[in-house]
Amino acid sequence: MSMLELAVFLGAAAASARWTWWRRKAAGLPVLVYHKIGRAPAGSRLGSLWVTPEKFRAQVVWLLNHGYTTLLFSDLRKAHKGGKKLPEKAVLITFDDGYENNYAEAYRILKELNARGNIFAVYNAIGKANLWHNPAGEPWINMADLEMLRKMLSSGVIELGSHTMNHPDLEKLPFEDAAWEIAESRKQLQAALGTEICAFAYPYGAGAGNPALRESVFKAGYTFDFSFRQGKTPWPWQREAGPIDRLFIRGGDNELDMYLQLTRGASRLF
Question: CA-based angle 95:184:195, to the nearest 5?
Fold first, then answer.
């Protein structure tokens, strides 16, 4: 084998190994995490956070065609409280932050396909913009307003969880401020929406490994906390084992990525 042939072989092997097809299948609950459904605007440096409506629809169709049951937070809570099994191929579709495009695109598609999803909303961003992003790297865009959130909630297609009051890095705040962000957001969302908020997701995943912050989540009344760590979580879930992991869906993911995420708990190594 020539040096060129060897280089080609090693390059192909490395590219193939990048995808996790060679891993054993992972048991547990898959929780998909999306952010923005649409097309990345000019100047966006976070293109991976954008999934086109066409691709999102195709991914939900793929899930349904492969026998997955899309769950709401309340479905998960009933199973958790009752010690019941989940459907054989259960999946949670989640969205972080609460963008207007979640209403305009994701909600429309989920409703059309009779599927279900869940949004972690940032309370003080409702009806405003994603002000935690530096607009030089990720342009500010509209967030869903209360009327949109109420409409989605009343439809039974979407349920809401909390993503704090202001989307801070909780580990960079004094503990009292971080605990307030966690508890106050549940209080305000429940008052505004007239429903129980049982799920919390850590912005940036920060604080998910901090025992004191996790304890403040449950002290505030949440049933579940969700990390940004890649993976699937064994069910029945025990909160002492850590937050519920999620599977980050990138804008460039294809059907192979989706299959590997759901079966292996990750699609790529890098």
Answer: 60
Task: Output the CA angle 227-47-162, nearest 5 degrees.
Answer: 30
Amino acid at 27: A
* Residue (of 73, 64, 56, 78) closest to 114 by Cα position: 64
pTM: 0.92
Q: How far apart are CA 249 and CA 252, in angstroms?
A: 8
The SS3 call for residue 132 is coil
21 token code pair? 């097809």
Task: Return the domain boundaries, the chain.
Answer: 26-264
- Residues 61-102: tens digit of each pLDDT: 999 999 999 999 999 999 999 878 899 999 999 999 999 999
d(CA 178, CA 213): 8
The backbone torsions φ and ψ at residue 268, rounded to the nearest 5 degrees and listed phi first, read -135, 155
What is the domain class of 26-264 according to CATH?
A: alpha beta
